[in-house]
């Protein structure tokens, strides 16, 4: 039936948290509400990156919007455990990756045939996203593992770029992002692979912690890559990492301020 995939429980994926234990209407209550940062923080980031979107690339707002879609899709998936919810969740994450790569991947990591042209690379990412979307629909059971693996090249490039960066605030943010990402991966793997152990101590909620930590890691990594993009390709714009609401407090919300927005430049985007 056409509506079969909308039914609760049709997903082959079921996380460690017990189903319908806290609410009779929500399958995995903690895993559902733990997506709150995906909904709350991107609108703030859109405001903080207003000048970045105006003077560097408006694409940054697309990434923040996609993060909201990830949060909404994840909430729907964990609330219903439907196959449609699973696919929406995973495909939203896939498109965040591809959009971020298209916008911010340093050109030194491009395949040779792209000839360091961001437009060509963006087309490659779009075609890859469409292809991966089709494969995701074909074999949804492997999607989560593939998406986890996509974080590895992201963090490897971050490691390489942090060795080049001169701004120590950016360097420290990159290190904190990496640490939070590792904590998030620890939570995901333990919830997925060692559910019996955590259930035995009555704490089957690590996937909820994964949502919190992976959002923090994701948006801070995006901030660092947004800095790299301006520093590498538009240095005359003079990017500066700042924090909101208090700039001196480095555990606030980071964003990139453009110090010289009127500088002339030529871009291939």
Automatic annotation (TrEMBL):
Gene Ontology molecular-function annotations: hydrolase activity, acting on carbon-nitrogen (but not peptide) bonds, in linear amides; metal ion binding
Gene Ontology CC: membrane
Cofactors: Zn(2+)
A Pfam short name: Ceramidase
EC number: 3.5.1.-
Main location as per UniProt: membrane
Residues that coordinate or bind Zn(2+): 78, 207, 211
BP terms from Gene Ontology: ceramide catabolic process
Transmembrane residue ranges: 29-49, 61-79, 91-109, 121-138, 144-159, 171-189, 209-230
Location in or out of the cell: Membrane
Annotated binding of Ca(2+), by residue: 14-15, 17, 19, 28
Statement: the UniProt record of this protein carries the keyword Metal-binding: yes
Lipid bilayer topology: Multi-pass membrane protein
Keyword Glycoprotein assigned: no
Keywords, alphabetical: Calcium, Hydrolase, Lipid metabolism, Membrane, Metal-binding, Transmembrane, Transmembrane helix, Zinc
Family: Belongs to the alkaline ceramidase family.
Cited function: Hydrolyzes the sphingolipid ceramide into sphingosine and free fatty acid.
Protein name from the UniProt record: Alkaline ceramidase
The organism of origin for this protein: Glossina pallidipes
